[in-house]
TrEMBL record:
GO MF annotation, one: N-acyltransferase activity
Domain CN hydrolase: from-to ranges: 210-437
NCBIfam families, alphabetized: lnt, PRK12291.1
Residues that span the membrane, as ranges: 21-43, 49-67, 74-96, 102-123, 130-147, 167-193
Family: Belongs to the CN hydrolase family. Apolipoprotein N-acyltransferase subfamily.
Source organism of this protein record: Campylobacter portucalensis
BP GO terms, sorted: lipoprotein biosynthetic process
Protein name: Apolipoprotein N-acyltransferase
InterPro entries, sorted: Apolipo_AcylTrfase, C-N_Hydrolase, C-N_Hydrolase_sf, Lnt_campylobact, Lnt_membrane_dom
Membrane-related topology note: Multi-pass membrane protein
GO CC terms, sorted: plasma membrane
Compartments where located: Cell membrane
Lineage, broadest ranks: Bacteria, Pseudomonadati, Campylobacterota, Epsilonproteobacteria, Campylobacterales
């Protein structure tokens, strides 16, 4: 009898321990799957041909496991994906004296994307799950579009678009549906492969793609303003001496209201007889502040204001009364940046250029007309050190591949580069073999 009284409490206690262990184990499993799906952000940093080859297969394995998760595990996987992709967004809070909010913002991103994945996994039907996950790339919470699952295929042998991801999901559905004939499902992956590559267009100009590394801690301090302007002028003079025809400088390379700096404008107009100049800077007009790109060419100046603003960075995408409250409490009463009414385009030596400032270069609106050339300027100093520049580069590569566009990207805080459509992996492999032989 006494043994029974000992037995039942012991069993109950054991069940609680097992249940708790099981829950923790499941959460760890979700974290591991989130890492697999997100691996391309981290492996591509090494720029290694074999890691690039392996990356999409790790992603496929991650999705394969995800499709069989219950809705709670979908939530946890989305939660960790949100953190792995966007933990760095919170780093900008350091420069508003809000560092104490960094953990909260990181958890906020986890929660938002956890809820999105919860919806994707709400129903057990695999077709519905595939459709919902394909739709995630086209759903922009708070107008932020950087969770793009198609971009997980930017490196490797598969096509980074709806076809590529769609046939990978078709493979997963077939794998779980064919029972004894699962091996047949592998053939569906053939239709997800990249079959061609676009030959990159390059501007027939000698272009100086400037790169700066000004720490965000000092970038907007008045005592460093003149030094930064001198650095810009030195870069322009050096580009002229080296025979360049066009120089592209990063976002806010000139930390001033350029349209109000009459002497500086006149100086740059004079220099533009020797070299075309595109530089980032601020503009002030009719009591509004604009984030702008300024083009100086042949003694003339044109201004192109940013059209798509960064959510919670340059605008608060909330109703006005909430927006005003947030700006007052957290941003010392500052107003939102004013946006342009339309996208900006201009011509350089007869070639049409689409203008993009930082976040804009990762938006589909920029590529709506399949432009041959985009000139983009960014300031990644807000988020350094982090994986933000690499994710930005991968997203730009995604759009470059999808629209056969060449992007000239000048950056502060990370690498400036020309980003062209994705090459076929097999061709890169052959080129590497030839280079070693």
């Amino acid at each position: 009898m006494s043994q029974k009284y000992c037995y039942y409490p012991y069993t109950s206690f054991t069940k609680k321990i097992i249940s708790r262990y099981s829950t923790i184990n499941e959460i760890i499993k979700c974290f591991f799957i989130a890492i697999l799906i997100s691996n391309f952000i981290f492996l591509s940093i090494f720029d290694n041909l074999w890691l690039n080859f392996i990356s999409p297969f790790l992603t496929i394995f991650g999705f394969l496991k995800l499709f069989k998760f219950n809705k709670i595990k979908f939530f946890y996987t989305g939660f960790f994906i949100g953190i792995l992709w966007f933990y760095w967004v919170s780093f900008s809070l350091r420069f508003y004296d809000l560092s104490y909010l960094i953990p909260i913002e990181i958890l906020f991103f986890g929660l938002i994307y956890g809820l999105i994945f919860l919806v994707c996994g709400w129903f057990k039907n695999l077709y519905f799950r595939a459709f919902m996950l394909l739709s995630v790339s086209y759903f922009y919470p708070f107008n932020f579009n950087w969770l793009n699952l198609e971009a997980t295929l930017v490196i490797g042998i598969f096509e980074p678009n709806l076809r590529g991801l769609g046939f990978i999901f078709a493979f997963i559905i077939a794998y779980y549906s064919l029972n004894k004939f699962k091996f047949i499902s592998i053939f569906l992956l053939i239709f997800a492969l990249q079959f061609k590559q676009n030959v990159p267009n390059l501007l027939p100009l000698k272009i100086y793609l400037a790169n700066t590394n000004i720490n965000q801690e000092i970038k907007w301090k008045n005592e460093y303003r003149n030094d930064q302007i001198k650095q810009v002028l030195n870069l322009i003079n050096k580009a002229i001496m080296d025979g360049y025809e066009f120089i592209i400088l990063p976002e806010n390379a000139i930390v001033s209201y350029v349209n109000l700096e009459l002497n500086l404008m006149q100086y740059l107009k004079e220099k533009s007889h020797n070299i075309g100049i595109l530089t980032g800077g601020l503009a002030y007009e009719n009591d509004f502040i604009y984030n702008s790109a300024f083009l100086f060419k042949d003694g003339d100046m044109k201004r192109f204001d940013k059209f798509i603003l960064v959510p919670f960075g340059e605008e608060i995408p909330l109703p006005t009364f909430i927006k005003n409250f947030v700006n007052k409490i957290f941003f010392k009463g500052a107003s939102d940046i004013k946006s342009a009414k339309n996208l900006s385009t201009y011509e350089i030596n007869g070639f049409k250029i689409t203008n993009a400032i930082c976040y804009e270069v990762t938006r589909p609106e920029i590529y709506a007309n399949n432009p041959d050339f985009v000139i983009a300027i960014s300031n990644n100093g807000w988020f350094m050190p982090s994986t933000e520049p690499n994710l930005q580069r991968l997203l730009i590569k995604y759009y470059a591949t999808k629209h056969a566009t060449t992007i000239y990207h000048s950056v502060n805080g990370s690498k400036s580069e020309i980003i062209t459509p994705k090459k076929m992996w097999i061709k890169e492999f052959i080129m590497q073999i030839k280079s070693k032989s």
